[in-house]
Automatic annotation (TrEMBL):
Organism: Salix brachista
Location of the EF-hand domain: 18-53, 60-87
UniProtKB keywords: Calcium
Molecular-function GO terms, alphabetical: calcium ion binding
InterPro entries xrefs: EF-hand-dom_pair, EF_Hand_1_Ca_BS, EF_hand_dom
A Pfam family per the record: EF-hand_7
Protein name: EF-hand domain-containing protein
Oxidoreductase in keyword set: no
Statement: the UniProt record of this protein carries the keyword Calcium: yes
Length: 188
């Protein structure tokens, strides 16, 4: 989680003023009683209202709560903002805890291409074999998958590669409309 906090802080520093203002706005919308702190109740109410039910899971709240004082300050909510904007809101498919820095993902499901059926689990569930998934699944950690994706993109023929890049471009453009962010990248 520490790594994610650093990424979130760097991300926030580079946000345009309007988006920084938007992050403040989200914080104050969550902070129902205006005491500058977000309690678990305010947190889940806000996220359930927005139909972001997976995010309302208490495991994410606990992960965000750096000093374990039972409430979130602005800096901690910035991490939530970063997680939602960068599409890093992933939960273990087995025990449902929030996945922080390193997790394992079924490579067959990851590369299937429909983009919806990925299967990721936390290190504990993977190490303790506490999950049920299809037979023959090959699990890779998220860093390995990232470098594999890059290798695959490079291996693709020139046209295919430009297709991939076009897709990335489209995502980036959509990302600009969607608060200038796509896949954790910041568009300058
Ligand atoms: Zn798990
Ligand atoms: Zn799978």
């Amino acid at each position: 989680m520490e790594e994610m906090r650093r990424a979130a802080a760097a991300y926030y520093e580079n946000l345009p003023v309007t988006n920084k203002r938007y992050a403040r706005y989200i914080f104050s919308s969550m902070d129902k009683n205006g005491d500058g702190k977000i309690k678990l109740k305010e947190y889940s109410e806000y996220l359930n209202k927005d139909n972001k039910t997976a995010l309302a899971h208490p495991s994410l709240f606990r992960a965000l709560d750096k000093n374990n004082n039972g409430s979130l300050d602005f800096e901690e909510v910035v991490v939530l903002y970063y997680i939602t904007q960068s599409g890093r809101a992933l939960f273990c498919k087995s025990c449902h805890t929030f996945l922080t820095d390193v997790y394992f993902s079924c490579s067959q499901c990851f590369f299937k291409g429909d983009g919806v059926s990925t299967y990721e689990i936390c290190c504990d569930c993977y190490g303790g074999k506490k999950f049920k998934h299809h037979g023959g699944a090959i699990f890779c950690d998220n860093y390995t998958l990232l470098s594999r994706s890059r290798r695959l993109a490079l291996q693709a023929s020139k046209e295919k590669l430009s297709g991939v890049l076009e897709e990335i471009d489209i995502e980036m453009i959509e990302g600009v409309a969607n608060l200038a962010v796509s896949a954790g990248c910041i568009i300058m």
